[in-house]
Amino acid sequence: MVCFRTMMSDLEKAMLAIVQIFHKYSRHKCKLKKADLKDLINNEMSQFIMKIHDKDTLDMLFSDLDQNGDREIDFQEFIPLIAMVTSACHDLFTADHH
């Protein structure tokens, strides 16, 4: 795996990091519960998303992501959050390149 990682592009490394961070918080079930999602956002995305402190904000976000209503967020339901935040922060990321 070490050799494989050294051959990866920056984008592939970023994709791998997203997968690894999701699994760090989802643990063995590969799904995030509400508390897991809050911890992931507050610990891993706090520079781009305000830390979640109030229950209503967390409930609304969780409900929006939980497409199948099983009260858990799987990886496919999690990815739209990453895409939304990345898209919303695009100008911030590229400010030096304009």
UniProtKB/TrEMBL annotation:
Recorded source organism is: Hemibagrus guttatus
Q: Name one GO molecular function term.
A: calcium-dependent protein binding
What lineage, starting at the top, does this entry show?
A: Eukaryota, Metazoa, Chordata, Craniata, Vertebrata
**Cross-referenced SMART domains:** EFh, S_100
> Which Pfam families does this chain map to?
S_100 (PF01023)
A single BP term in Gene Ontology: positive regulation of canonical NF-kappaB signal transduction
Out of the domains of life, which is the source? Eukaryota
Keywords assigned by UniProt, alphabetized: Calcium, Metal-binding, Repeat
EF-hand domain location is: 53-88
Q: Give the UniProt entry's GO cellular component terms.
A: cytoplasm; extracellular space; nucleus
Q: What is this protein called?
A: Protein S100
